[in-house]
């Protein structure tokens, strides 16, 4: 779901559709955008003190297929191979010592826990005791803590973050558990658990790592195949360690402002199917079930179908993460053999529901108010919840529309500073 609290006046686009994403590529791109290197080096010093191991960080500016990028190489004096519980403790202690803000601390904690939960799920182990092999080394700690600090320095925890589907490469590669196909099991598990789209290729190599995808799934608000309308201001390139013959091994992050500030852009998915042999009772039941199972909206449109038979088009608006489940519900309840799935954009106001305690016609009630604002914070629309207005109307014996007008007027005065 998009982060409604994010400041839509600032946009970040993570373009990982070409060469995927790893922790060092992500951190390199943030440094390339202007994140403070001294803050990163201070974070490394804190990590060294906590784990009792020296860490060397080299920052270079190589050229990858004629693209100048920032490359970060992290080397520790020895291997650590921490357990899940130890890794969580190290990262959370480090961001705490660095006096990072609440959003940076929460982000670092989410990222490391995502990694650990994926490994535990794959091996069937307890999260605290899971042995992380490559993920439990010093470079993962630096990449997670450094990224949290760099994101905070760039102000990106208050931005609307978009991402492309992530390239995962292909072919076989060697790691601590032996030979496996790309993506690695932990990478695939993280993407699966978050419903984050991936695509294979464009080269035979492991392009995305567990740390990289854990960073991106915990930061992204919207996944899109195409960039939103944006006025680009900065572009950062993070370099991967390998060189490919036909592909620039870089991660690109673009910062900018949206074109126009009045509305936000959201990605939704429209599900459709035609039915002509389902009773009205079933369709009514299905509408309620789909709404209860997570659909944003459901419409039933009467139409004439082949052989002039009356039927209907079932149209459902859904979040991307709920698509497969809702399609299954539609097929099971209607007997449909296929459902059309179309991803699209919608422009929307920021929405929130605010409970207000109001006295209406002598009756004191808590009434939920649906408030819509533009990205500048201006209240555009105020609408009280139907059930709450009906409850007051029944208690007072007054017409529904009379109560609704009073509630809306009171709410508007309170929410717009009118007293």
Produce a short descriptive summary.
The protein has 419 residues and is an alpha+beta fold. The chain contains eleven helices and 20 strands. A hairpin with a 2-residue loop joins strand 8 (172-175) and strand 9.
Tell me the layout of helices and strands.
Elements: E1 7-15, H1 23-32, H2 37-51, E2 55-60, E3 63-64, E4 67-68, E5 71-76, H3 84-97, H4 102-123, H5 138-154, E6 159-163, E7 166-167, E8 172-175, E9 178-181, H6 185-194, E10 198-199, H7 210-217, E11 222-223, E12 230-239, E13 250-258, E14 264-275, H8 280-292, E15 297-304, E16 310-318, H9 323-334, E17 340-348, E18 350-360, E19 363-373, E20 379-384, H10 386-396, H11 400-415
Parallel strand pairs: 1-6, 6-11, 7-10
Antiparallel strand pairs: 1-13, 2-5, 3-4, 8-9, 12-13, 14-16, 14-17, 15-16, 18-19, 19-20
Helix pairs in contact: 1-5, 1-7, 2-3, 2-5, 3-4, 3-5, 4-5, 4-6, 4-7, 6-7, 8-9, 10-11
């Amino acid at each position: 779901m998009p982060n409604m609290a994010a400041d839509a006046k600032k946009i970040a686009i993570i373009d990982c559709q070409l060469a995927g994403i790893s922790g060092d590529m992500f951190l390199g791109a943030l440094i390339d955008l202007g994140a403070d290197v001294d803050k990163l080096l201070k974070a490394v010093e804190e990590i060294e003190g906590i784990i009792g191991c020296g860490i060397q960080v080299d920052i270079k500016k190589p050229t990858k297929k004629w693209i100048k990028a920032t490359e970060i190489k992290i080397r520790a004096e020895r291997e650590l191979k921490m357990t899940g519980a130890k890794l969580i403790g190290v990262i959370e202690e480090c961001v705490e010592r660095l006096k990072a803000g609440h959003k940076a601390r929460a982000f670092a904690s989410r990222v490391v826990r995502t990694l650990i939960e994926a490994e535990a799920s794959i091996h069937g182990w307890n999260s605290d005791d899971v042995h992380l092999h490559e993920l439990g080394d010093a470079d993962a700690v630096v990449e997670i803590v450094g990224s949290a600090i760099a994101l905070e320095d760039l102000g990106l925890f208050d931005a609307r973050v978009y991402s492309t589907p992530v390239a995962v490469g292909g072919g076989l590669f060697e790691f601590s558990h032996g030979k496996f196909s790309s993506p690695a099991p932990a990478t695939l598990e993280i993407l699966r658990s978050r419903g984050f789209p991936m695509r294979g290729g464009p080269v035979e190599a492991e392009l995305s790592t567990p740390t990289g995808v854990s960073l991106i799934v915990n930061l992204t608000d919207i996944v899109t195949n195409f960039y939103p309308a944006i006025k680009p201001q900065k572009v950062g390139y993070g370099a991967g360690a390998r060189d490919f013959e036909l592909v620039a091994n870089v991660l690109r992050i673009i910062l900018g402002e949206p074109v126009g500030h009045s509305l936000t852009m959201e990605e939704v998915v429209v599900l459709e199917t035609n039915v002509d042999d389902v009773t009205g009772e079933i369709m009514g039941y299905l509408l309620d079930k789909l709404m209860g199972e997570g659909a944003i909206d459901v419409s039933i449109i009467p139409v004439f179908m082949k052989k002039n038979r009356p039927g209907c088009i079932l149209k459902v608006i859904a979040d991307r993460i709920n698509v497969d489940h809702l399609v299954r519900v539609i097929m099971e309840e209607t007997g449909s053999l296929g459902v059309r799935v179309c991803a699209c954009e919608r422009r929307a106001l920021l929405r929130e529901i605010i409970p207000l305690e109001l006295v209406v016609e002598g009756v004191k009630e808590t009434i939920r108010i649906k408030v819509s604002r533009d990205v500048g914070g201006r209240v555009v629309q105020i609408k009280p919840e139907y059930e709450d207005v009906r409850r007051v109307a029944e208690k007072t014996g007054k017409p529904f529309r009379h109560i609704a007008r009073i509630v809306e007027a009171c709410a508007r005065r309170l929410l717009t500073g009118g007293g």
